[in-house]
Amino acid sequence: MFKTDLEIAQECEMECIRNVAAKIGVEEKDLEYYGNYKAKVSLDLLNRNKDKEDGKLILVTAINPTKAGEGKSTTTVGLGDALNRLGKKTMIALREPSLGPVFGLKGGAAGGGYAQVVPMEDINLHFTGDMHAITTANNLISACLDNHIHQGNELDIDIEHITWKRCLDMNDRTLRNINIGQGAKANGVERHDGFNITVASEVMAVLCLASSLTDLKERLGRMLIAYNTKNEPIYVKDLGIEGALAMVLKDAIKPNMVQTLEHNPVLIHGGPFANIAHGCNSLLATKTCLKLSDYTITEAGFGADLGAEKFLDIKCRLGGLKPNAVVIVATIRALKQHGNVAYEDLKEENVEAMLAGCENLAKHIDTIKQFGLPYIVAINEFATDTPNEVKALEEWCKEHHHPMSLSQVWAKGGEGAIDLANQLIGLCNQENTYAPLYDVNDTIENKINIIAKKAYGADGVDFTDEAKEQIALYNKLGWDKMPICMAKTQMSLTDDGKVFGAPKGFRITVRELNPSLGAGFMVALTGKVLTMPGLPKVPAANKMDITEDGHITGLF
Question: What's the pTM value of the predicted model, to 2 decimals?
Fold first, then answer.
């Protein structure tokens, strides 16, 4: 019987984080300890190494996720361990898990099997408090905004045109639309409001794209919160609280260092969702890794249509990053589901369905090619994979000239990705022609159409009347020269989460656009994507428990 990820993590004898940090030359003066096994890394460390040449940057992405799972984080962790086994000084940069999915459907998010990051329980729960700091900063804006209106509304804010929402790091559908200020006049001005999940807050995006504490403060001040009765924008800086917000986030801006099961250093920092935000860990964490190591392995959320597109079109563009290679993760189980096999039947051998599902993999490969980057397909092995299925997939990759490697990191840790690591070393030494998919100075409509056509395979984009009106206003206000952050279902290349594979002849509908001026991008909401998820019928929380001596079960 297989051990659970949590059981494997709990058996690990962790090294003191100072010893892990020492492996990459980080001294104790640059660590702020949160117990023995996790620490904040000072921003001075990056400043002192800013003139050092960057190491190689490898992005791990995947096919469209399914209920069967793909193992992107597991592959990322195992690959980092494999490169270290080969004597390559390697660091891993990951996102922080959100409590909402931890207690909801997805469960924990620190890798799996013998390719995990520890302390797993801490990472998946409160960690170092970053999520709470972001939540507090977001809601401080809401509190000050409503107080300003209550105290006389000097800014002439139109309460029917407030764009800022409160947030909570939890899946709670009942908070999507609420009324506040009800009852006595002392309770404030009554108005409509709502909540986003914390990882969808622009504060999260700003934290993950800021280059310093000063830059963070300036970005926070630029965030749009409302319009006045003349339809003129109101910003955070108009409330005069950007300094207080930066103060709340003074520790959250520092990357968090932890370790893999093989005691290699990992920076986990920031956690924007990729279906409703830009889906990448912080720029500060990635840049710190690039300065301290020869190889940096990082991931972007969900499939290449979302996470990788945003990493390569937004994060790399805004941060001046130059990626060297991309790993595209797939599983035979997930490919069969994209070949229209029901989840309950995925354990049964079905070569024909798997090959049909390879159309989804092929589209994501095509997307990465369009960015001008070398790639390799990593097949994350499951115990239910049959020799016939593995052989057929290897032959498909060979026939279509796609480099591939069978990854066995769940069962073997770093040892299970030695072949993948060796192939990537070669890919990273190749010259590439990386470039974003679109010119940031193009029109909003054209940029969205380019993403839909090139990354999704859509025929084009339809804009609702509301979206058209918003675009006209944003053009007038000069907000049209920013990258686009697409908010779309992660389950499909289309904007309908029930469509598997690689469909043809479809269009994307953009229903609404929201400017994230502090982050520096324009969010385009498509289909039915929500910024506050809900819980499933049986939440993961139902299976979680803790004993009298503090032993946790059921976390993942």
Answer: 0.95
